[in-house]
């Protein structure tokens, strides 16, 4: 592969990495991570609501990593309200997991920007150390991909396994019990997934540029020494 082709590939990978950093930074501050509906279980049981009547007890909720909004329905009209995770919900949610998600998301932005710098340096500069060359490109791309995967796993676990939506809906609700009716991940979550896949794609682009994966060495057979061994 010619030097020009390598520059084009590195520029493409660097541009993708920078776009990921911008996308994740934008997604981090929005509330478009999870959206769903919540059922006022207590109210529905009191009037034995079924069919069309049950819709009067189904409200909406959406939230991100820092704040969100909900509209509770208990048969007497909606009760819209906004909420924030810090400091309001720290005692109601798995706080350590939630803080870890935010920390790794912020670190992913930094890693993506560092990876962008390394790609551009290899495209237009002259790498002079191992970490400035292909090894550094593989390293930061792998770290970014791993960090993004970790955020996806942690956030999915917090929402699905720890019933985050129900905990938010039932926060400071003494007389009513709410149950998750439907929930699905929103745009910001899928942006993070795409960015994680892009960092994995960058690893493939580095290999396409002609650089071997780290810690792989071609084994050359020495036929002459093999023949001497056979003689003895």
Automatic annotation (TrEMBL):
> Which InterPro entries does the entry mention?
Clarin (IPR026748)
So which residues are the signal peptide here? none
Pfam families associated with the record: Clarin-2
Q: Which GO terms describe its cellular component?
A: membrane
Q: How does it sit in the membrane?
A: Multi-pass membrane protein
Kindly state which keywords UniProt assigns to this record, in alphabetical order. Membrane, Transmembrane, Transmembrane helix
Its GO biological process annotations read: equilibrioception; sensory perception of sound
Give the chief site where it resides: membrane
Q: Where in the cell is it found?
A: Membrane
Q: Which residues cross the membrane?
A: 99-125, 137-155, 189-209
Q: Member of which family?
A: Belongs to the clarin family.
Q: What is this protein called?
A: Clarin 1
Source organism of this protein record: Leptobrachium leishanense
Gene name of the record? CLRN1
């Amino acid at each position: 592969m010619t030097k020009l082709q390598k520059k084009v590939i590195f520029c493409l990978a660097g541009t993708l990495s920078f776009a990921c950093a911008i996308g994740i930074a934008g997604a981090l501050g929005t509330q478009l991570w999870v959206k769903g509906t919540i059922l006022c279980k207590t109210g529905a049981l009191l009037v034995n609501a079924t069919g069309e009547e049950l819709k009067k007890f189904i409200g909406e909720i959406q939230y991100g990593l820092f704040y969100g909004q909900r509209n509770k329905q208990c048969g007497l009209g909606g009760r819209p309200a906004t909420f924030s995770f810090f400091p309001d919900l720290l005692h109601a949610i798995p706080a350590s997991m939630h803080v870890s998600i935010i920390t790794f998301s912020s670190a992913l932005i930094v890693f993506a920007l560092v990876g962008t710098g390394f790609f551009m340096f290899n495209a237009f500069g002259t790498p002079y150390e191992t970490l400035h060359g292909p090894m550094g490109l593989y390293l930061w791309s792998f770290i970014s991909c791993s960090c993004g995967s970790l955020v996806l796993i942690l956030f999915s676990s917090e929402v699905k396994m720890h019933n985050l939506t129900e905990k938010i809906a039932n926060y400071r609700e003494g007389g009513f019990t709410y149950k998750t009716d439907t929930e699905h991940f929103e745009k910001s979550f899928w942006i993070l997934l795409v960015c994680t896949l892009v960092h994995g794609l960058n690893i493939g682009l580095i290999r396409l540029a002609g650089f071997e994966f780290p810690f792989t060495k071609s084994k050359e057979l020495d036929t002459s020494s093999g023949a001497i061994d056979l003689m003895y």
